[in-house]
Amino acid sequence: MTGEQVAVFLASSLRLSMPMILAASGEMVSERAGVLNMSLEGMMLTATFAGALGSWATGRPGIGLLCGVAAALVVALVQAVLSVTLRANQLVVGIGFNILALGATTFLYREIFGPLSREVIPGFAKWEVPLVADVPILGPALFRHVGLVYVGFALVLALWAGLRYTAFGLAVDAVGEDPRAADRAGIPVALVRYVAVLIAGLMAGLAGVFISVGDINTFTEGMTNGQGYLALAAVIFGGWVGGRTVAACLLFGTATALQFQLPAMGIAIPTAGLMMLPYVLALLAVAGLVGHHDPPAALTLPYRRGA
Hints:
Blueprint: H1 3-32, H2 40-58, H3 61-85, H4 90-112, E1 126-128, H5 138-142, E2 144-146, H6 147-165, H7 167-177, H8 179-184, H9 189-216, H10 227-237, H11 242-264, H12 271-286
Antiparallel strand pairs: 1-2
Helix pairs in contact: 1-6, 1-7, 1-9, 1-10, 1-11, 2-3, 2-4, 2-9, 2-10, 3-4, 3-9, 6-7, 7-9, 10-11, 10-12, 11-12
């Protein structure tokens, strides 16, 4: 591989990993508080469509960003009401949201854009980081992306710091491990879980908007292509720890980038095998074959005071 090919491959790996990094970081907060959002795929797909629609209708990617995040937050709020207040089965609720999001976005896409439309929408321009963007290989690979990449990493670092060094982070871990003991200590269990789910919605919204407005500049049916599920697997793969979760997302993104890089290098590998590679890695992670980590003790378990 030439230096230019290496730079292109690294840039593609980071770009393809970014939606999973954003979504998985938010989901990690929610799961550490005890709420599993199987609806992560639906949140991302809803944000992808809403962001594309907002950018197309107004001609302003920033408006599309706000629309996408707002749509994902609405889904997250309904998820929180059902999971935390009504104590519904989190797996069933999440799968239902994913089916609803796929059907609703497909219907609206065909009604607004037409079934065969590939409408190009206004997107964010790439931003070159001064001084370092011209460094050979690493400059083009890491420092020539849309601004949402850098904002996303800043938010991920803020989440890590918040979980590790703030009272909210301690409350999240306490609620996720033993909500009854947390309640007795005066921690508002429901409020902490609501905030955690909304953080997951915020990050999933950013992930969805990145796909349609920050990267591809269009919308297609089922555009997320299972990236929400890969983000869920990355949280498990990473053992509910921030750094390892991001590393898992980078691994999945790199595996996806190989679909395009290996054929360009003349390496004859069946396309189907390359396409399923990230999902095979995710399956191994979920099965515990690449390291076993115990989840938060109260994950998926509803809490009712006095019960």
